[in-house]
Design a protein that fits this description.
alpha+beta; 367 residues; five-stranded mixed β-sheet
């Protein structure tokens, strides 16, 4: 059922409940021995007006206090008390219905004060009337019943409104999270690829005069990498990209070696869960990118360990810049978010010997 259909059903059910409550509450008007002090047509007109205002109070009650304009509630109270005083004790249920609306519309303190004042005043007026004790008890009982029903109906509508608002907020948060995920993916992809393209372009430029053949080979590699980067970005857009950890390690070693960084790497572990392998692939990619962009490393190592139900990836290098020209950007924060989504954690920082170590640890079993 769509949102509009649910709203229409809720409105219809609310109107029916209001009609039933008012009809049940004013039934003694036609059967009670209490004398009426006004013409019937005026009484029915007043009941119609009260029912209309009550419908507005119940349906908009959750917004009255927030808007600071509870005029419909005030009008309902005036009609309820005025009709009770004008047309006799048989309409004692109207102030009770008004109290039920006040329960979910006003704050707890104000609602409690309103209920005590109206119910107490109605009881005192009934006690001073000439009605039999049994009829007085019946009228009070009817009033309490309709008050509880109206309060419950209003509270349900209030909760339903909060649920609808929560659904809208969850949908908005989901959209924002997806945008952040997409931005993180594009950052990681293009940050790495563009860094490698720039590096290979510089190598090709230096080799153009001394070794044209190798320079041409480097330019071919740049073209191939650019094409693969375009394909990867398209894959991210489609949402179907699946990273191979082994391919990322081999690609990282190749890029670092081409940049003059001596690199040693363990073989990527096989059989990792599908939720873990892509995340570790992103870690390798971002670590290699940071080494190329933010360090003067000459040596690098990529290692894997598995113990106590966790797999850890450690990437270290010996080239931390003492005065880096720029920061590490958003890459490490993006990795921390990725690892956190699978129960992992990221640790990074300089080492005493002047190097830099990045450790990513992920549980093998889903938590």
């Amino acid at each position: 059922m769509g949102r509009r259909s649910r709203t229409a059903v809720a409105r219809t059910a609310t109107i029916l409940l209001i009609v039933l409550c008012v009809a049940y509450g004013v039934e003694p008007l036609f059967s009670s021995s209490a004398p009426r002090t006004g013409p019937l047509w005026a009484t029915l007109l007043g009941l119609a007006a009260f029912s209309a205002v009550l419908a507005h109070v119940i349906w908009r009650g959750t917004q009255l206090v927030a808007d600071g304009k509870p005029w419909s509630l005030v009008l309902a109270g005036i009609l309820a008390v005025g009709m009770y005083l004008r047309f006799g004790p048989a309409l004692v249920a109207l102030p009770a219905i008004f109290c039920g609306a006040a329960v979910f519309t006003l704050s707890r303190v104000r609602a409690a004060a309103m209920v005590v004042m109206v119910v107490g005043g109605s009881w005192l007026m009934l006690a001073r009337s000439t009605l039999p004790a049994g009829e007085i008890v019946d009228l009070i009982g009817r009033g309490l019943v309709v008050m509880v029903v109206v309060a419950v109906v209003g509270t349900v509508i209030l909760l339903n409104g909060e649920v609808e608002r929560s659904r809208g907020e969850l949908a908005r948060v989901a959209v924002l999270e997806e945008r952040l995920r997409f931005a993180r993916d594009v950052h990681d992809l293009l940050g790495h690829s563009l860094s490698v393209i720039a590096l290979k372009g510089e190598v090709a430029a230096r080799l153009t005069a001394s070794d044209p053949a190798r320079g041409a080979a480097e330019m071919d590699a740049v073209v191939d990498l650019a094409r693969r980067s375009v394909d990867e970005v398209r894959s991210v857009v489609r949402g179907y990209r699946r990273q191979s950890l082994k391919a990322e390690v081999e690609g990282g070693v190749s890029v670092l070696t081409a940049a003059g960084v001596e690199c040693q790497a363990d073989e990527a572990p096989a059989g990792l869960p599908d939720r873990i392998e892509p995340v570790l692939g992103w870690v390798v990619r971002e670590a290699v990118t940071n080494i190329l962009r933010h360090s003067d490393a000459t040596r690098c190592s990529i290692g894997f360990t598995a113990a106590d139900g966790r797999v850890s990836l450690v990437v270290s290098n010996n080239g931390v810049r003492k005065t880096p020209a720029d920061g590490l950007g958003n890459g490490l924060s993006g990795l921390a978010e990725r690892l956190g989504s699978v129960g992992g954690r990221l640790e990074s920082g300089p080492e005493p010997d002047g190097g830099f170590r990045l450790t990513a640890s992920v549980p093998l079993e889903e938590m």
